[in-house]
Amino acid sequence: MEHVKSIPCAVFGASGYSGVELVSLLHNHPHFSLEYAFSSSAREDAEPIASLYPQLAGQLDVILQPWHSDLLSQLAQQVRVVFLALPHEASAAIAPALINAGLVVFDLSGAFRLRDSSAHFQAYGFARPDDLPTEIPYGLAEWTTLIGTEQLIAVPGCYPTVSSLALKPVMSLIDGVPMVNAVSGVSGAGRKAAGHTSFCEVSLAAYGVATHRHQPEIAQAIGRDVIFVPHLGNFKRGILATIYAPLKSGVSQATVDKAYQQAYAAEPLVRLCQQPPAIKNVVGTAFCDIHAVVHQNHLIICAAIDNLLKGAAAQAVQLANQYFDFAPALGLQQRGGVV
Ligand SMILES: NC(=O)C1=CN([C@@H]2O[C@H](COP(=O)(O)OP(=O)(O)OC[C@H]3O[C@@H](n4cnc5c(N)ncnc54)[C@H](OP(=O)(O)O)[C@@H]3O)[C@@H](O)[C@H]2O)C=CC1
Ligand SMILES: CC(=O)N[C@@H](CCC(=O)OP(=O)(O)O)C(=O)O
């Protein structure tokens, strides 16, 4: 255990939705101190974060500063850890320099998640940089062990987090290909304006059918092929995944319950529920709620998370807690949420 009161850190993409959640969590964390909150260089001036998020006025006295690469040496002298909440290509471009400067990088984008380079290229349309650490842990927090020497940690995507947490405990009981139907709130698409995510355009519908980049990520995480259909709903935040999986012959409810208990009884941020979970119960929290029922030799699993917290910022902080040997839920137990 590192006996440090305050580990200095920085957030890139702090003006965005998952970035501002990171800023809020780190600002209130007992063992991390937020030294820098960067926006993109497209913004000309530094400004209080409350000028973008007025709900933070009087609560979060943080200055957003445009990132420029000439700040790198100053950053490397003053902080130990950086959290990247950037578009995938921006993360891929900046991470190698940060690592070479000796910083520990928790990356929330998809730039470093897929191990197979052709699957990565197909999903993201650019090649991963090759000057990277050979081992980049995929940080599904409840299923990852960080020892505190890693240089770069890939934080899972929002849909893969909820889908993999729901499926991994029972994969040895499943015979065939699970099917994941998941509905996300609009904050999943980020803060940047786009026609198809504007309020009057969004109406519950599937998208990315058979093409979404999270399909290979979920398959990698569960070690099995998967069918994945994301949907966009007209609400702000949260993801509800409904999953159908054919069971091996004779698998009982008791066996399923035992598998979930074994996986999660000691995990503070996964709740095994007696009822199907609702998004309202997880929004603003770092929890993943899971409910599973055996029906006609299939398993029906319902699972919910807050996409910006357990699906992004809170999972990154949970991993940083693990990295520095703090309790996994440290700083994550208050209900919150900025956006
Ligand atoms: N939203 C979600 O639910 C989830 C998002 N993620 C991932 O997290 C990352 C951020 O997503 P999200 O918060 O939604 O995105 P937003 O669009 O809300 O924010 C993007 C942020 O990145 C900054 N930025 C953009 N381009 C650059 C650049 N070239 N250099 C430096 N900064 C840049 C923006 O700054 P500026 O404001 O100045 O443009 C902004 O702060 C993405 O990779 C996303 O896939 C992961 C899980 C869930
Ligand atoms: C509703 C919506 O648009 N969601 C995003 C996924 C969320 C996200 O930002 O992707 P990562 O988790 O891979 O970082 C999408 O489908 O592209």
TrEMBL record:
Cross-referenced InterPro entries: AGPR, AGPR_AS, AGPR_dimerisation_dom, AGPR_type-1, NAD(P)-bd_dom_sf, Semialdehyde_DH_NAD-bd
Active site: 158
Record-annotated Semialdehyde dehydrogenase NAD-binding domain positions: 8-150
EC number(s) per entry: 1.2.1.38
Catalytic activity: N-acetyl-L-glutamate 5-semialdehyde + phosphate + NADP(+) = N-acetyl-L-glutamyl 5-phosphate + NADPH + H(+)
This protein's GO CC annotations: cytoplasm
GO biological process: L-arginine biosynthetic process
Listed GO MF terms: N-acetyl-gamma-glutamyl-phosphate reductase activity; NAD binding; NADP+ binding
A Pfam family of this chain: Semialdhyde_dh
PROSITE patterns: ARGC
Residue ranges that the Swiss-Prot or TrEMBL entry lists as coiled coil: none
Signal peptide boundaries: none
Compartment(s) of residence: Cytoplasm
Entry keyword Amino-acid biosynthesis: yes
Pathway: Amino-acid biosynthesis; L-arginine biosynthesis; N(2)-acetyl-L-ornithine from L-glutamate: step 3/4
Location (main, coarse): cytoplasm
Keywords: Amino-acid biosynthesis, Arginine biosynthesis, Cytoplasm, NADP, Oxidoreductase
HAMAP family: ArgC_type1 (MF_00150)
Record PANTHER family: N-ACETYL-GAMMA-GLUTAMYL-PHOSPHATE REDUCTASE, CHLOROPLASTIC-RELATED, N-ACETYL-GAMMA-GLUTAMYL-PHOSPHATE REDUCTASE, CHLOROPLASTIC-RELATED-RELATED
Functional description taken from the UniProt entry: Catalyzes the NADPH-dependent reduction of N-acetyl-5-glutamyl phosphate to yield N-acetyl-L-glutamate 5-semialdehyde.
Family affiliation: Belongs to the NAGSA dehydrogenase family. Type 1 subfamily.
Protein name: N-acetyl-gamma-glutamyl-phosphate reductase
Origin species: Pseudidiomarina maritima
Lineage: Bacteria, Pseudomonadati, Pseudomonadota, Gammaproteobacteria, Alteromonadales
